[in-house]
Design brief:
It holds the Pfam family CheW. By secondary structure, the chain is mainly β. It is built from three helices and eleven strands, in the order H-E-E-E-E-E-H-E-E-E-E-E-E-H. The chain is globular, with a radius of gyration of 16 Å.
């Protein structure tokens, strides 16, 4: 019984692993409110190019952004696997982010996460706070606040 207690006290965090293009990214599960299938998004005039628009989620208006466009990748191609992840963030409120696919939930211990070398602000890696090692796979871990921060554009 004591061994089980020791393992659970280990400093671990859960991440939802998503695919964007051919890369795997992790989103801290504590920020995730909901995961929904792609649905009709209403475009908002004069919004940032990476903001796809808004959607009505059970009576709540939720802004939706494309992580692909925010990181200056090619535009989203929606498939049956595409999802909108609804994030709850204290400063920004609720926001949806579009991902190509939701894969799994993984638990990573602090020692399984390497911090990348600091790069310039104009680099899409500024959205990444660490690289998680899960088995033989590497997962880039998003800094959620940097991703959704409107002033934090790569351009």
């Amino acid at each position: 019984m004591e061994n089980a207690m020791e393992v659970s006290e280990k400093n671990t965090k859960q991440y939802i692993v998503v695919k964007i293009g051919n890369e795997q990214y992790g989103l801290d599960i504590n920020y995730i409110d909901n995961i929904v299938r792609m649905q009709s998004i209403t475009r908002v005039p004069k919004a940032q190019t990476y903001f796809k628009g808004i959607l009505n989620l059970r009576g709540e208006i939720v802004p939706v952004m494309s992580i692909r466009l925010k990181m200056e990748l090619e535009d989203d191609e929606f498939t049956d696997a595409s999802r909108i992840i609804i994030l709850k963030i204290e400063e920004q409120g609720t926001i949806g982010v579009i991902v190509d696919e939701v894969k799994e939930v993984v638990e990573l211990a602090t020692e399984d996460i390497d911090r990348p070398a600091k790069t310039t602000k104009n680099d899409k890696s500024s959205f990444i706070f660490g690289i998680g090692k899960h088995g033989d796979e590497l997962i880039s871990l998003f800094d959620i606040n940097a991703v959704v921060d409107e002033s934090e554009s790569v351009s």
